[in-house]
């Protein structure tokens, strides 16, 4: 589903990604972990061209998104993204947040988009909040709306950048539960997370980044039981 070949990204003189090569299969759930500043967010943002790679190639499905001829807006329709700080539209209700893009970008009718929106809000346990404004929701509820909003575009892939890092501890679980049930539907997912328990339980593979390099790429049971590199060993000692 996603193929990344020798991906480099620099900001001026700072080389943040130093040649990442990996693939993510359809239906696979990949946890991206590593120290702060290792390039995890930049890596994720390259996958939907929120950052333009300096070098290397990326395919989503059979489309090379790094091809100059590719329509970036089209690519983003197929790749949902959920951020640490939700980024909901504050002046729109929950349901309007979820129906906005399907109506504007996909040309769905309001009735169609609302029917689908309510169905998705049910999935994340928030149909009773459809007419609330985001400011009246808890962090965990906001993040579940953000997930429903991304799903409303029927993406092929979902990217999550530390979706629970801004949440109070008691709200982390409700968001992880939604992500877990999404994983069980067969959605292809890449998740930057510091939730090692979640990565171990839900991910099919762990990508460990350090210093802009993909240092390990292994199933969680291998990675957590016997990380091969010193860098991963040291990271895990601090985390666990
Ligand atoms: P992580 O998500 O693993 O913490 P990031 O991908 O956010 O790491 O950042 C990796 C490095 O790239 C950091 O040193 C960060 O300061 C730098 N960086 C990220 N985005 C930009 C940007 N837009 N301009 C300049 N430097 C950036
Ligand atoms: Mg980050």
From TrEMBL:
Q: Which residues form the ABC transporter domain?
A: 2-236
Identify the keywords attached in UniProt to this record, alphabetized.
ATP-binding, Nucleotide-binding, Transport
Query: Which InterPro entries does the UniProt record give?
Result: AAA+_ATPase (IPR003593), ABC_ATPase_HisP-typ (IPR030679), ABC_transporter-like_ATP-bd (IPR003439), ABC_transporter-like_CS (IPR017871), MetN_ABC_transporter-like (IPR050086), P-loop_NTPase (IPR027417)
Is Nucleotide-binding given among the entry's keywords?
yes
For this UniProt entry, the molecular function terms from Gene Ontology, in alphabetical order, are: ABC-type amino acid transporter activity; ATP binding; ATP hydrolysis activity
Q: Which Pfam families match?
A: ABC_tran (PF00005)
Q: Which PROSITE patterns match?
A: ABC_TRANSPORTER_1, ABC_TRANSPORTER_2
Q: Which residues cross the membrane?
A: none
In Swiss-Prot or TrEMBL terms, this protein is called: Arginine ABC transporter ATP-binding protein
- Name the source organism: Parageobacillus caldoxylosilyticus NBRC 107762
Upper lineage is:
Bacteria, Bacillati, Bacillota, Bacilli, Bacillales
């Amino acid at each position: 589903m996603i193929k990344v070949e020798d991906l480099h990204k620099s900001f001026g003189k700072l080389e943040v990604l130093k040649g990442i090569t990996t693939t993510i299969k359809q239906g696979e759930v990949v946890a991206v972990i590593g120290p702060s500043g290792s390039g995890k967010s930049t890596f994720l943002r390259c996958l939907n061209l929120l950052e333009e790679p300096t070098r290397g190639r990326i395919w989503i499905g059979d489309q090379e998104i790094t091809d100059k001829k590719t329509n970036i807006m089209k690519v983003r329709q197929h790749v949902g993204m959920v951020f640490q700080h939700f980024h909901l539209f504050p002046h729109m209700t929950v349901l309007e947040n979820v129906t906005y893009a399907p109506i504007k970008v996909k040309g769905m009718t309001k009735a169609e988009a609302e029917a689908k929106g309510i169905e998705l809000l049910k999935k994340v346990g928030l149909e009773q909040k459809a007419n609330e404004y985001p400011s009246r929701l808890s962090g965990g509820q906001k993040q579940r709306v953000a997930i429903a909003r991304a799903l409303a575009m029927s993406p092929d892939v979902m990217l999550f950048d530390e979706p629970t890092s801004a949440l109070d501890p008691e709200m982390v679980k409700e968001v992880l539960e939604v992500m877990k049930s999404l994983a069980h539907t067969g959605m292809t997912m890449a998740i930057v997370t510091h939730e090692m328990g979640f990565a171990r339980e839900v991910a099919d593979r762990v990508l460990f980044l350090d210093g802009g390099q993909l240092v390990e790429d292994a199933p969680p049971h291998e990675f957590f039981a016997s990380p091969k590199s010193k860098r991963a060993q040291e990271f895990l000692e601090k985390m666990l």
